[in-house]
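Ticket #4471: complex job returned nothing on first submit. Input attached below:
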Amino acid sequence: MNDITPINKSTPKDWETDQEVRWCPGCGDYAILKAVQRTMPEIGGTPENTVFVSGIGCSSRFPYYMETYGFHTIHGRAPAVATGVKLANPDLDVWIITGDGDALSIGGNHTMHLLRRNLNCQVLLFNNEIYGLTKGQYSPTSREGTRSPSTPFGSVDHPAKPCAFALGSGARFIARGIDVHKNLPAVLKAAHAHQGAAFIEIFQNCIVYNDDVFASFTAKPNAAGTQLWVEHGKPMLFGSEKTGGVKGIALDAKTLSLKVVDVEGDDWEGAGVLVHDQTNRMIAHLLVEMPFGDFPMALGVLYDDPAPTFESAVVDQNRAASEGKVADLQKLVAKGQTWMVEKQPREA
Amino acid sequence: MASATHILTPEEASANPLPEAVVVRFAGDSGDGMQLTGGQFTLSTALAGNDLATFPDFPAEIRAPQGTLFGVSAFQINFGSTEIDTAGDAPDVLIAMNPAALKTNVEQLKPGGLIIADEGEFGDRNLAKAKYDANPLEDDSLAKWRLMKLNISQLTLDAVKPFGLGNKEALRCKNMWTLGLALWMFDRDRQPIIDWLKAKFAKAPELAEANIAALNAGHAYGETAEIGGQVGRLSVPAAPAEPGLYRTITGAESISLGLVAGAQLASLPLFYGGYPITPASAILHHLARLKEFGVTTFQAEDEIAAVASALGSSYAGSLGVTCSSGPGIALKTEAIGLAIMTELPLVIVNAQRGGPSTGLPTKTEQSDLYQAVYGRNGDAPVPVIASRSAADCFDCAIEAVRIATQYMTPVMLLTDGYLQNAAEPWKVPDMSEYAPFPVTFKTDAPAEGEKFLPYARDNKLARPWVKPGTPGLLHRIGGIEKAQGTGNIDYAPANHQAMTDIRRDKIAGIDVPDQALSLGEAGGKLAVVGWGSTYGPIYQAVRRARKKGLDVAHIHIRHIWPMPKNLGELLKGFDKVIVPEMNTGQLKTVLRDQYLIDAQPLNKVSGQPFRIAEIEAAIEEALL
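Support reply: We reran it on our side without changes. The output follows.
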């Protein structure tokens, strides 16, 4: 097949609505909105065939700002609504916008089942580790000890790990991005190119209730030494001379765990640095569980290994089950064992 | 005859049976195959041209411990040569496969009725499990009935011996032996059941042969002199019925076919989101086999996902349908609110069961009327339709689809556990008599310089339905209050007032047929007003009372919300109104609220349908 260049390629502006964006000034959501609007023309999207479905929360206002079809649903249920949309019309390009509370607390069940079924869609989870819209309560991804109006003495429960949850649920595409980072459109493009459920955790700064919670790896001075942008087929390297030397991620075969190694010059092979294979589920497991602090934050496409999608399986089965059958309503209602009554009706 | 304040005893009630009809109750252990036996007996009875109604009554446990009182499963059938509307008050014949089945069912048997008991099961252990101190087959505790003791277990073992089955498997053929005897008693044809057994056990012909041998042996047992003079052969003549093609149908099948027919009439694909729950699951099972009609079924991860996916499919241009029972409907409530707010079509079927909470999963009740009419946050009106019989479910489902698609609204369709499982003869409809109501999706983009208004209104106050994928009509919808016309988020006080009024007026203005009377004339001393599956007993009770010359009419309401426009005037034409319901008075309250009438309740929440005599007694009391 020839490559066809769209005659009227859209511009980011074509994907903006006339609605006033109502997030707090400085919210990370603005940057994500821009990144998505920049990505849509590049993936050759058409607004009328694109549907944004969201749940409830700050992030879930997103569809109102995209000049596409959009459905702002109820708390936690966007994956279920999206499943109905996609099964009713598999040709639509479906994007789910959700947050840490929406996707992992009230809607955890739906997120899990959407991922295991492998509905062909993109799931953008804006993780800000806080409930913003309800004014700052701790969320399922908040770190232990988070002080909030509902946990004045600090939270005591262990946080959920979005990417580990996704992988455990059977997701076939897992990526991480940062709201303001230039790489976000590239991550979104990769997610869209993946056939099946693509799960993207986006670290999003809540400037009002959880400002700088990710600064340890997103702040400029920390970035180079703490961000590991993985790329398929490339060694897992991070840091530079300025941050105390180039380092790599290697496998400790004795403990079956990862370790950080120093790299002398270009000799990453000599240091035993792993080469990223995005189709390798074991590597994905290690990366999503890699504890930040002792290790850098793994970012980019951590896992991408497509499998048949849910809606294609449903469509195929519907087609196979219908083959050779005629949809004759009259025959249907007269099915089974029948009998004729030929007498005249009795007197009322 | 009942006196002033006299309540009928069961004996008196059953002394007034329909002479043209016979009630048979099969009762046994849940593992004895009583539902199967009843179902096959129903089929042969329908094929013999009788009118009939059935009442499957089984425990919530899948396999309750053998021989226990709570493990008894029963199937009652009322059939006759006259119009049958109920499963019958008291059985004429009770077939009891073990002591527990006898104990739990015998008191309902008419005095002088026939007990057929499998004495092979009346050993000490089973008697103890049924909490019998002495064997009732041996003392005179059953004296007011006729008793026929047969060692059905042994007779079955003898009959299937040639097929070399193990003891356990051989005993499984007991139900077919019993069915054979019942077929002989009522002069029924065995062939349809033999055909069915051959098809059912196509992969295990020896099982088919053994079951057929048991069936034939039971039949032969009746045929030969062995029975003696205890029971004569009863031949109930065929009931007169309108000429045409008939079949039997359960409510679950009827709803499924009606939904498919409704979607076809609306020219829409049907999307069904469901989650397993008793007694609604059967609808999912039926629809899952009808893919060639453009049906997609989706077993969701929970009730919420079931309704949410159905709503998503409606948004994308399918007819979204979900079914459940009370507890599941409760879970769906928030999404139903979203459907109201976004004004998308959705059909929600509630097969009601005993509540609250898990309640009585396998027993029937009508206690979700408040939930259907009022049970949501906010001012959230939804049209509510209630089906009165298994056959009526078909037309009600079509009506639900019509209203949902024409008015862009979720519609609640109420059935109940009794209707779901009960079978009755159904005159196969001529589909060419149903007027199509095809949906027109909006596809024309607004003129240059004009904006598409997703919340514009037609003369029914319905908004346009636009499928994603349509160029030029991009828009966003959601659960937040919307501005009139544009659908943009709008919290303005005047706008919320206006939108609330529109949502109310749209539903209130739905075109609902005028209320007709099922029996009697407009105006008079007493109207008995019902809804749902109480149709049969109310109809028969009013019929009997009218035969006695009493001034009473029967009104049965299908459109619970909005109510027919003439209903208020119609009710006000009667001196008294009584409302029999299988709840504590829910329709009664709505009628009082809507029309300021002194509607009086007649309530029953035992998990069993009304008996005709109970309603008849209430009529007589009201007319004193």
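The radius of gyration of chain A is 24 Å. Closing as resolved unless it happens again.
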